[in-house]
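lol ok so funny story. i was supposed to be doing the assay writeup but got distracted and ended up predicting the structure for this chain instead. priorities right. anyway since i did it might as well share w the group, maybe its usefull for someone
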Amino acid sequence: MTKRETYRAKLRTLRNWDAYLLRESGLPGPRGNIELAQVVADEGPPDLFRRYLSYTADKAPTNSPYEFLAFCGVVGLGRLLAEGDGGVLPTLRRFAADPRWRLREAVAMALQRQGDADMARLLSEMRPWARGTPFEQRAAAAAVCEPRLLGQARQAAAVLRLLDRITASVERSTDRRSEGFLALRKGLGYCWSVAMVASPADGKPLMEKWMARPDRDVRWIMRENLKKDRLARMDPAWTKKWQGRMDG
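and the output, tada:
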């Protein structure tokens, strides 16, 4: 029996999940129990998710066990979204700017459930986010730059166009010390490489365009992507050439 199967079986024996989730949350600690959160999202009813969303940052601060309940609630909204409840999108968009980084990660995980069900719909829904705040842009990029969602070249090309649009906003940004901007920059520092290996023919010209720009933050983003092993495995010569140019 896998870990997720064990969690699933345990939850089905419980009438109230809260105490078990708090005990198994992994918090405080470096890593919350993501496997358990995914099972909660699979098995929980909508009213449970909404109750867990009431654990705001003041009630459930970062790295507290109660933060895990909020995390489960956000991931659970992803199941509802995948089942057709588009009404949860405004809530997910709000949590994309939550002060707790784990909750922001939960938004991307929730959106990826929509991608599993209908990637074209997820891409359509992320276009307005890509024109939003840096936190919203970061959530959109992290949601679509997931290898399991990029099996079709056409969809990978659409993801690259989305990243291109978001990166253009980095170049135009006038507030580069904000937490949102820094989170976006960090996310783009790996997202490009994920989408690139899914569609190199589309990705190389776009990355080369941005690698030629003088903007310091855009160049940092591109250098970070060039460090990723996935790019070296994809095309060692191309990656080494551009690493040399970016470091020169």
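The chain has a mean pLDDT of 97. The chain has 15 helices and no strands.
back to the writeup now i swear
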